[in-house]
Amino acid sequence: MTRLSDPPSPILERFGKGWDPDTLSALAGSVPIDLGAPVERVLEQLGPALGRPEARTVLVGYGASYDTAPQDVALFGALPGWSVHVPGHPDEVGRLLRKAAAGDGSTYLRLPEQGNAEPHGASGSFEVIRLGAGGVVLAVGPTLDTVVRATARLDLTVLYASTIRPFDAVGLRTAVLAADRADVVLVEPHLAGTSAHCVAETLVNVPHRLRALGLPWDDSEPCAHGLDEAGIAATVRAFLR
């Protein structure tokens, strides 16, 4: 596994306050990626070894904003055998990082610039935040709190994902089949539609509708693409009419 001799200080300065020794030790075995730079350049620098299962690596992405590197999750998620985590709270980061350090495969973990108020499960399975009959909203990482507020008066199931590769097909399918309508809204804090194909594959034998929210390849603000509370609320209501 690719390792560093010391924990990457930019990550510690911005995200590492209060992290326990085990998490810091796991972080010391990771490779920091500054997502303020084009992620394609990072992939070029890391080289073709990333696509080989035997080249075990833990990459920690930090510094992404709404106008830089929205495609990072899509790119790393396309690498064979990689796990991809998008935690929504600093407490989830530690659990996911320790799990990655103890595992056998390669991992990409994207640290959130802004997160949810409370941590949630980091088991790899989608967590049921709320049950409803009118459809399913899958909120990825730091989008959860906004999604919960935006759908507060709607009869919907809300799922939370901090791990999107591997994709919890069982969790999504179970939630969709339990609802009265097989309508799915996918809300991701990165490139729009990154996990849309996973939803389609999961529900290949279930007639369904999908609306994917996220960012384009380049832009500046989440509200410009309906990722703020008002935008999500309007999109969900229009989609479920």
Automatic annotation (TrEMBL):
InterPro entries: THDP-binding, Transketo_C/PFOR_II. GO terms for molecular function: magnesium ion binding. This is Transketolase central region. The lineage of its organism: Bacteria, Bacillati, Actinomycetota, Actinomycetes, Kitasatosporales.
